[in-house]
Specification:
The protein is mainly alpha-helical. It has eight helices and no strands. About 70% of the residues lie in helices and about 0% in strands. The longest helix is centred in the N-terminal third of the chain and has 38 residues.
Length: about 200
Amino acid sequence: MRASGVWAGRASSIGRAVAAKNGLAVLLALAGMAVVLLAMGRPATCPCGTVALWHGTVRSDQNSQQFADWYSLTHVAHGLLFYAATRVALPRWPWPRRLVVAVLVEAGWEILENSPIVIDRYRSVTMAWGYSGDSVLNSLGDCACMMIGFAIAQRLPWWGSAGMLIALELVALAVMRDNLTLNVLMLIAPIDAIRIWQAG
């Protein structure tokens, strides 16, 4: 009994050490992203001078500048999809380690999304007219929302995650005439009819 207790204690210590290591990796990834974005000239917070956790007006100079907005739904969807993708691609990895991979991918996307070539692409072919990129605060919020989606997917059965993904897409579509599906479609292969509908 004493030996089993010792092994249980060691296993618990190892588990805490692994969790701490993964947590540190996530923090370092987010910090690295923030440093790169600041070096690229992205504002730390909204240039308007206001800092808020939520901004609900899509066509506004504060959209993509505060911590969260309606587009945050698409980043929760990222988390659901990243969980599924890493579970298929890295089936032997525990979910906290796969979360680190998901954060690295999301952080990489935030950096790419705020590059001049992608900003110009958004402005020219999507509904994001006047889009000038995200604040660092908003990019951190996007990563947080992705992690929330990832954590939710870890607890749900696959059909629950699928249902939630569809619900997120429908809510975003109803509120702002945009969602993750349309965002990707319009960025890669823009369709004039959709752009005109979104403008209405």
